[in-house]
Amino acid sequence: MTFEKVCKLADIPDEGVIGLEVGDVPVALVRRGEEVHALHDVCSHAEVKLSEGEVYEGTLECWLHGSCFDLRSGKPTGPPAIKPVPVYRVKIDGDDVLVSLSKES
């Protein structure tokens, strides 16, 4: 499994989210304290950027229709989304955040 350096930990706001491209794949990075999660940055319901949404109790909420996706599994926690979004493995190496595009689920 190959990991690619994508940003510094400080680039992601505490309890916040940023969107970036890893190669040509849109990725939303979510920080909760020192823990970082990576999800595909496209809502499975409306095909808009999840990184423009809000982090809420272990989920990332889509700004358009309010679908929430579990940060660990990518599974929707309620309607209108019914399909999960891919999640990616993350490593923290010192101050660097690394992501592997191999899907976890």
From TrEMBL:
Origin organism lineage: Bacteria, Bacillati, Actinomycetota, Actinomycetes, Streptosporangiales
Keywords for this protein: 2Fe-2S, Iron, Iron-sulfur, Metal-binding
Gene3D superfamilies: Rieske [2Fe-2S] iron-sulphur domain (2.102.10.10)
Domain of life: Bacteria
PANTHER family linked: 3-PHENYLPROPIONATE_CINNAMIC ACID DIOXYGENASE FERREDOXIN SUBUNIT, FERREDOXIN-RELATED
UniProt protein name: Non-heme iron oxygenase ferredoxin subunit
Organism: Streptosporangium longisporum
InterPro entries linked to this entry: Rieske_2Fe-2S (IPR017941), Rieske_2Fe-2S_sf (IPR036922)
Location of the Rieske domain: 4-99
Isomerase as UniProt keyword: no
